[in-house]
Write a structure and sequence with these properties.
The complex is a heterodimer of chains A (181) and B (294). Chain A has 181 residues and is α+β, with helices and mostly antiparallel strands. Chain A has one domain (21-180): Beta Barrel (Lipocalin), CATH 2.40.128.110. Chain A has two helices and nine strands, in the order αββββαβββββ. The longest helix of chain B is centred in the first third of the chain and has 17 residues, at 2-18. The chains are: A alpha+beta (181), B mainly beta (294). Chain A binds chain B through residues 3-4, 6-7, 10-11, 14, 17-18, 21, 23, 25, 48-50, 52, 57-61, 63, 65, 70-73, 76-77, 79-81, 84, 86-87, 89, 92, 94, 159, 161-162, 181, and chain B through 3-4, 7, 10-11, 14-15, 17-18, 23-24, 26-28, 30-32, 34, 36-40, 57-60, 94, 174, 212-213, 247-249, 289, 291, 294.
């Protein structure tokens, strides 16, 4: 009797720990480049991500070929010439919410969060700090973030003829709706 | 004792299930297996003269202008062929993500042409593996030159010729793509009864990338049943070599070829030039893509 009780306690504990992880397979990432010559956007609706609110750790991963452009030719050039997505099929982020201690995530509501971590694009890893919001709802967890990246930081070569059409830094928007795992 | 052990094991199992500390591993375990479709096997819908497996994506219009000049061996008086120009222009459009259509007009025999190309299989890796991309191409060409003999009964159908091709290509590496193109050409009317109405050919072509935006291309068609000892006008196998240069919305293709025509029934069935004799045409294709539907 006592033993089964211990077992139940452990199981419940284990379950409650696992319920602090949230996951999505269809998160949204887009990037936007603005220049006087041209505005370019690309959207990706197949972003996979996990947040562990007990530790504040979060990861996400995108398939580069799932970014879609308005112009098919641009998408081809993006994959072929800039991202070389057959060589580097995925990009990922691995980080941690740094101000977790000051948040009470048991209560529903929207919280300002700061995440620090490593962003890997084309096998080049750079530290990034991202400010965003985290919303706790009855059914799950939503995060929103915006940050800027510089293509040259990730060895993306932009030839002179198109340099005026691609912004020096791209604005990246991340919108994720997680459900409990 | 035994029970304790079992309990211990169960607890351990539960804990181990939970204690996956690397979230990235967990993410990869949960990710659905992906199929990675190969893209950009060729830069353009043509390897050189002939079609590649590539297709215009839906909503994209390709306006193509192609030129073949006279033969290089015509000498300085003809400015090595550049004084004579044969033109072919076409409008080509992607309807679905597996179908494109096109219409064109060329100087060669004042021909109008129309074609459709369907993607049947796509090269892919990952969850679904497919070693090659396979497309089917079919076209009709309408010759509108005046009848050589207006006195005999001339039928409209005599102006028509048809081509069907199965295009089988593999992007072997980022830099190298190869294609095989079994071809059937049917001409409703030929010059004499010695000439075959049906022609069978096997095409082979490829591209080798020299840089991200420049590639070296070559293409050859082997005519299976063209026996020049019987033909009224000897024909030779077409060989074309050239480079693709891509600049944003344009693809330029610079070509050296022994054929003058830019439609299938012409360059496959009616190439009268020979490389060995210096019957080489300088030519180019320009492709400009417009996005009509987003």
């Amino acid at each position: 009797m006592k033993r089964s009780f211990v077992l139940i306690i452990f199981t419940v504990l284990a379950l409650s720990v696992s319920a602090q992880k949230y996951m999505t397979k269809n998160g949204f990432i887009s990037f936007f480049s603005h220049t006087p010559m041209e505005d370019i956007t690309a959207d990706n609706n197949q972003v996979a991500g996990i947040v562990d609110i007990s530790t504040g750790e979060l990861v996400f991963q995108v398939l580069i070929k799932s970014f879609h452009f308005e112009r098919a030719l641009m998408e081809e050039h993006f994959n072929e010439n800039y991202m070389e997505s057959e060589k580097y099929p995925k990009s990922s982020f691995k980080g941690k919410i740094t101000n977790l201690a000051s948040l009470d995530l048991k209560k529903a509501g929207t919280y300002d969060v700061v995440a620090e971590g490593q962003l890997t694009i084309r096998d080049v890893t750079k530290p990034v700090t991202v400010k965003g919001t985290l919303e706790v709802t009855a059914t799950g967890l939503n995060t929103n973030a915006k940050f800027k990246i510089v293509p040259e930081d990730y060895n993306i070569a932009i030839p002179g003829v198109v340099r005026d059409k691609i912004a020096k830094d791209l604005e990246v928007t991340v919108i994720m709706k997680y459900s409990p795992m | 004792m035994k029970k304790t052990f079992v309990t211990f094991l169960l607890v351990l199992l539960t804990v181990s299930l939970v204690a996956q500390d690397d979230l990235m591993d967990l993410l990869n375990e949960n990710a659905a297996p992906e199929t990675n479709f190969t893209t950009a096997t060729f830069k353009s819908t043509r390897i050189m003269n002939g079609h590649s497996v590539e297709r215009m994506p839906p909503g994209q219009l390709d306006f193509r202008i192609s030129h073949r000049f006279g033969t290089v061996n015509s000498g300085a008086y003809e400015f090595f062929g550049l004084d004579q120009a044969n033109i072919h222009f076409s409008l080509e459009y992607g309807i679905f993500d597996w179908m494109m259509i096109g219409i064109g007009r060329g100087t060669y025999e004042k021909t109008y042409d129309a074609f459709t190309k369907l993607t049947l299989l796509r090269q892919s890796s990952g969850a679904r593996v497919m070693p090659v991309t396979v497309s089917f191409f079919t076209s009709a060409a309408l010759r509108t030159t005046k009848w050589p003999d207006p006195d005999r009964t001339n039928y409209f159908s005599s102006r028509l010729a048809y081509t069907s091709q199965v295009l089988i290509a593999r992007k072997i590496s980022q830099g190298l793509s190869l294609q095989l193109t079994p071809t059937y050409v049917h001409r409703n009317l030929v010059a004499t009864e010695l000439d075959p109405n049906d022609l069978w050919a096997m095409g082979a072509g490829g591209r080798l990338k020299l840089s991200k935006r420049i590639s070296l291309n070559a293409e050859y068609f082997y005519l299976v049943n063209a026996d020049n000892t019987y033909m009224s006008n000897p024909v030779y196998n077409p060989l074309s070599v050239g480079v693709d240069i891509e600049t944003g919305g344009h693809v330029f293709q610079l070509i050296l070829t022994n054929s003058l025509a830019m439609i299938e029934k012409g360059f496959i069935g009616e190439t009268t030039g020979r490389w060995l004799n210096g019957d080489i045409h300088i030519g180019f294709n320009i492709s400009r893509v417009f996005t009509l539907k987003k």
